[in-house]
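Journal club side-thread
Mid-discussion, someone asked how the predicted structure for our own chain would compare to the paper's figures. Pasting it here so we can look after the session.
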Amino acid sequence: MLRQYKTIKEQYQDAILFYRLGDFYEMFFDDAVTASRILGITLTSRDNRNKKNRVPLCGVPYHSASTYLAKLIKAGYRVAICEQVEDPEEAKGVVKREVVRVVSPGAVTEEQILDDKTNQFLASVCFDKNWGASFLDVSTGEFLLCEHDSSEDLIDEIQGMAPAELLIAEGEDNNPVIRYLDISCLTRRPSFWFFRENARETLLEHFQITNLTGFGCENLRAGINAAGALLTYLKETQKGHLEHIERLTPIEKEDVLIIDDSSRRNLELVQTILGGAREGSLLHTLDLTVTPMGARLLKRSILFPSRSPEEINRRLDTVECLCKDRKSKQSSLTETRDRAAGPDSARNKPLRKELRKLLSAVYDLERLNSRVVLGNAGGRDLVALKKSIAPLPRLCELCRRSHGLLEEGSRQLDVLEDIHALLEKSIREDAPPGLKEGNLIKPGCNSELDELVSIVNDTKRHILAMEARERERTGIPRLKIGFNKIFGYYLEVGKAWVGNVPEDFIRKQTLVNAERYITPELKEFEHKVLSAEEKSLALEYRLFVEIRSKVALASSRILKAASFIARVDFFTSLAEAALNFNYVRPRVNGDQKISIKEGRHPVIEHAMPPGKFVPNNIYLDQESQEVLIITGPNMAGKSTVLRQSALITLMAQVGSFVPASEAEVGVVDKIFTRVGAMDDLRRGQSTFMVEMNETANILNNATDKSLVILDEIGRGTSTFDGLAIAWAVSEELVNKNGKGVKTIFATHYHELTELARIYDRIRNFHIGVREWNNSIIFLYKLLAGGTDRSYGIEVAALAGVPGHVVRRAEELLGHIQKDEFNSQGLPGIARKTGKRSKKKAGQLQLFQESTDSLRDKLKDLQPDNLTPREALDVLYNLKDQL
């Protein structure tokens, strides 16, 4: 047995081997040591005569293996499932075993491991003149590829997809891109997997096509290399059919709004910056979906919004339709009958609510289909699949009464009536988790199985029935059927009735007062009874596999239905959010204008009491108001205004209604944000370096159709350096390519407000505050014009900084504002005096003249009122002060 174990383990050295022994999966040697530590189970050893060389051993029950498997996968390990592939009763020697599949973080279908609302992507990356990447979710069949000119774009793409596992060629570990990605589960495979000829041939063979032109990716050389290697890896690990992977889809950047990785984090689209939690993100706010497919589609749409005004408006039309009550097309007589049925009658419900009620009965159809195709689906999976497709006819009927994308999709919808009928007829509702425990197939599905089950469940009734038939046939009134371990079942006839025994009775035993016989029918019944349970279990399993295979043949149809259900759920969720949160339909077009009236932050407003959030207006265009410089104190709401403007623009391009009283959005191609302060010491980057990297990315890649959000620039270096950088960046953004970039810039550098005097398309705004009793009250309102105060000391006091520190800060501020140097030439903020400096060493102000005592005296002079003698005295006094 151990020899067999070692032979199999040699083929899967980078995985923990689950080796099936009876009712357990056993692990030996190093696998046992590792697994026992992660799973928290007892590490024991296999007895050996040489105690010094005992074999480490641990195991888990096979019926609850998924729980343990989930822990290992989440810890980043791969697990090879090794099953018995031979009947132990027929085996000669050790039972034959084989690895039936390999489970890894990126290649998993178990419900206990997967997040219903998120794709579990396996990714691969390859360099061949360009950078190529591919992404595959084996649990849904989604297969994507892309190609980029720069490694930065590739990194953004991969980080946006957030793969659970990354496949690379051997020897690529030290590649700077791979090291930067920092994905915990790296899987290495031979470099020839990534060769053009091998990768392309793998794809063509799988899809049964002659070229990749039909998928629109024939020329994506590096992307094809990555995709082919990925598919090879899936075939290696899954050991089964992959028919649910039906197409290869290129990621077209021209079709989607591009949001780089730092902007995704800064805007908290799918998770918060602090803690990486889903709650507190835009996704969490908008996600009112009721199916896993709809939730995943919503997440993809937020990460990759559309750039097509036509597509966006078709989505908005659909959401608007679902926000209205469905008007009945029935006669007045029907309407009267519906009203009489009560307020809960289906026809009195809005279309949106009817659809959501139907969808609430749908399970994860995409992942159920994948388990069916891969041969991992059990009875409960097929029951769930049946329940998920049951609402399709009614769903199709309702969508045909609407308009927009749902009405269009319903025309091609296959309601899968044949699959539902097959499962309804064959699979028991109370099917057990396992496949070899019986009770999978319904009565009436198969006559042979019915007979076997009937024999097992009601042997006595069958015996009594046979006795009655034989008595009637032979005329022997006391004929009875008995059983013993030697002869099995027999017919017993009293001596007085032996003459009535028919010819087909075969004498088996003679007793004093009776004779015992057998018949062909009785022997056949005996054989059935003795082997009925074993046969019934085997037959039931075989029938189940046949049914599952029939369902697998409908994989393409099931996936199309799942896609339609996802879209219905996506749109009804957006409509529900629009009604619940008082959103309005935005006007979306190809213009260069963004106009938001009374806009609100979609996440923050929910964290506040109703009616407490202060809305604000934002207007941007390329003719009169392209760059907004926003000043004001900390905590006044500058960052909120910036973020909500970007989020409202993004929501509009998703196809969602938006939190505002009115909104017009000219489609943008990219959203860039430079927000917050965060270092990246692991990659050797300081806070300021991270800030400059993000700024450089914006300046190099923003176009006249982009939207840029800047929340402070240059605060991580000296004041003058930072101010100079911020000024130069602002000039670049308003002048870039002669058209400029729509930008909202929040800053504490009040000197930047001077830009509005130089450039017609720069406008100053500030967040209003009111001073009261040496403190401030935040108004959270965006007002026209700049401000020259940041109220930093007042905010420090509100934050609880000790009073004496606040007072000292006020004292120092007074010195600094009055004059950086005192009359002795020493810094005005110093308490102690020292030797008088012969030369003043203060730095000059960048945008205002520096002040000193001579200048002050000259300002106070009134030359017209001085006599010649007085003028001469003043001149001598001034000379003495030099």
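Post-session note: Residues 326-347, 829-848 have pLDDT under 50 and may be disordered.
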